[in-house]
Amino acid sequence: MPILSQWLDEAARHHGSQRALVYRDAYLSWRGLQHRVERRSQELRSMGVTPGTLVGLMLGNVPDFVVLALALDRLGAAAVPLDPATSIRDLDMLLEAAPIRALVTRPATNSTAPVVAAPQRPGSRPTPLALRVTDVTKAATPKHVAESKKRLAGSLLTVNFYKHAPVNLELSLPSMVAFAADAGGDPKGVLRSDAQLESIAASLGTALDAQPGQTILIPTPFHYSAGFDVGLLLGLGCQLTMVLEDEFSAKGLVRLLKDNGADLVLGTPAQYSAVCQTITVALPTPKARCLCIESPGLRAASAAFKAKFNGALIPIFHSAETGPVALDLEGVSEDESMAGRLLPGVEARVTSQDGTTLPMGVAGRLWLKTNNASPAAVPQLPRAIRSVGPVGIPIGRTDRDGWFRTGDLGFVDPVDGRLHVTGREDDLVWVEGRRVALGEVEGCLESFALVKQAEARIVYDEHKGPMVVARVVPTSACRVEDIIEHCARYLAPYKVPRHIELCRQL
């Protein structure tokens, strides 16, 4: 039996009447959750969902997401968590990258108007694959159109079925697929097995000493790989009561922390900053251990949290490919490079550019080996690339000995063994738990007819959190509003520059 189903059945057997899910004013017991999962799995089977089927869930942090993810697991199918705000253009890219057979949506999901791909202007920087379209006319409508739609009984959820040519996955029966951005901003689906899901839950449970019956509050979306891992996998694997927050409320989280209504909280720097901004006086330190995803603004959020609650945020260093890598129960360090202590079962090594292993304390390319990591992904790279030595392994891929090239630069402290991350080999950056390729943003900017050159970067605002900003060299007089509107047509909302500075040269 698949691992998620094993966890559910075990929890229902030992803690059947205890709360499994809490959402707003309602809750489901473990036995009630098991019953709903059984009904949905039978319904999905009758619709043609079979072992190995990839099913996208564009639902947010609601009980239906958990029920359907478990129902798919029971059938041997794989859940693919997706952002409910995914645009039609981005959805086409996801369907190109992975053979997603069905997509579950709720009302108003994916209602963004279709867009036309940005044209390539002669002499400009090559547009990333994510923005290339050969036929602009056809791009005005979705490339992938559902061949049929069905309604899930007793709900407003719709299952959209898509036709796909057979694809030989490196992992024939993945348990779930976590999407991340590859170099250039193109989507990459990380294929995860039962063994990896079990390892992630075990390493987190051991590090946090999570006990059955404890409560975890999850305002971080499940379509963030960290939200899925630290929220759902830890909750199911350790039989925790999961409190779901679909629409984040800073005041609601403050109230929960004051009332000691949770043992664990998983949030982002922007969410904790918003919590601190709603408080006018210092409050008692909550009993909850507040976990925070490593992202720009972590140090500022930690300082504000310490001032308002006299408590510490626990940083978690994580990626879709490796799962959770490090955390630090002592709190966020003032050293901005420190990521925390490696989790049980995680090994790290650092190499020079030629692949030579460097001694501890010396910064270089960071490689990780862990049972949490998945070597399989879609789209696939030729196996010939993987068979070469360390120097030839692309960022985001695994060598023949199981070492994963993270793309991060850093070192391991020889004194305390803590991991330090000092930068990146490429232009991928983090924006609230999601990767953004700055080259993709720059390519989009330079595809605008009135833009000659562009440079994008990440800045942190204490009120708005991390955001993309850009400097642009125009070819002639133009309005900033027109450039932003152009980007909004082709980029996901979190990738669109919030501020653009016009200048004569970069």
Strand order of the largest sheet: 2-1-11-10-12-13-14-15-16-21-20-18-17
Helical segment tally?
A: 12
- Which geometry do the CA atoms define? globular
Please tell me how large the radius of gyration is: 22 Å
Instruction: Summarize the biggest pleated sheet.
Output: 13 strands, mixed
- Distance linking N and C termini: 57 Å
Structural classification: alpha/beta
Instruction: Please report the total strand number as a whole number.
Output: 26
Low-confidence region ranges: 109-140, 382-390
Q: What is the beta-strand fraction? A: 25-35%
The multimeric state of the shown protein is: single chain
Question: Approximately how much helix is present in the residues?
Answer: 25-40%
Overall mean pLDDT stands at 86
